[in-house]
Design a protein that fits this description.
The structure is a homodimer. By secondary structure, chain A is an alpha+beta fold. Chain A has six helices and five strands, in the order ααααββββαβα. A three-stranded mixed sheet of chain A has the order 4-3-5. In chain A, strands 1-2 form a two-stranded antiparallel sheet. The structure holds a DNA duplex.
Chain lengths: ~140, ~140
DNA sequence: ACACTATTAATAACAATTATAATCTAGGCC
DNA sequence: GGCCTAGATTATAATTGTTATTAATAGTGT
């Protein structure tokens, strides 16, 4: 499953004439394997041991390229730094206000809201995003103590 | 209407033991009057003529205090800088990808999504936000030319 | 092997925001 | 009304996430 995703992604890169460098491969693989939604710095730190000389700019460059090819999604929330998500199926996010954890939330896409918004605003709506905020189980338990 | 909002807000400040300084008053008034959703820098620039010596830190401090007291809302999107919204009634936002304009979008709150999210995630959901992205009428027309 | 181009690493630049420290002032109290 | 003090402001430095620059490096096609 992961191998399949990785191979598909690599095919996309090849077709676009983007070279598969070791660093790029590692960033891509890390994102596909990650259960979490890492920041650029998370990725940088995680690959540090494998690529001691890698620059943080390389991580950003590769994330930008992967984003431009539609292989990853950039999530921009309040907490300063962007997070990256290799799950390209439409879904929403649930975010813990305490620890910052982000969990995917699959729910039928709210297309009717988009059409209503078009009517009332005159905009041409392309997409929407939604985040639900609260406290995760772990943090709720920690607070009780 | 605006006066009423302003007075209510000032009461809240007084009750919380927060001093009503001229700068703070001006920031608050600007936000309540604003049709737009200004950034900290917008506010800073707008009040520059009235308070030539005002520091940008003052704007940030006051925005933080107003936010902590629940008088304004901070909107954090991808585009680097936060925007501030004095409309505290629940509503969503429609954002133009071309020019960055933000328009309020009133729609019945999606409470059922919150309860579903609680069930599937185990989170305790407090609130949610949604933004719809697209192209506004002005920018659509500009593109045709 | 050669030339060409993409990529990298290192570093500097940048912009938004926050921290620090010295000075000032709003608002309660006499 | 004038004094006092905690809170506010100013100016500046520091921090953080990200992007730009540039020279060195490494694939790719011929």
């Amino acid at each position: 499953m992961l191998d399949h995703q990785l191979n598909t992604a690599i095919d996309t890169l090849k077709k676009s004439g983007v070279r598969i460098t070791p660093q790029r491969h590692a960033v891509l693989e890390y994102l596909l394997t990650a259960e979490t939604h890492p920041t650029a710095d998370d990725i940088y730190k995680a690959l540090e041991s494998k690529f001691p000389n890698m620059s943080v700019a390389t991580v950003y460059n590769n994330l930008r390229i992967l984003r431009e090819l539609g292989l990853v999604r950039e999530l921009t929330y309040g907490d300063s730094s962007s997070r990256f998500d290799s799950n390209m199926v439409d879904h929403y996010h649930i975010i813990c206000d305490e620890c910052g954890k982000i969990v995917d939330f699959h729910y039928p896409t709210l297309d009717e809201i988009e059409s209503l918004a078009e009517k009332v605003s005159g905009f041409n709506i392309n997409y929407h995003r939604m985040e639900l905020y609260g406290t995760c189980e772990e943090c709720s338990q920690a607070k009780v103590q």
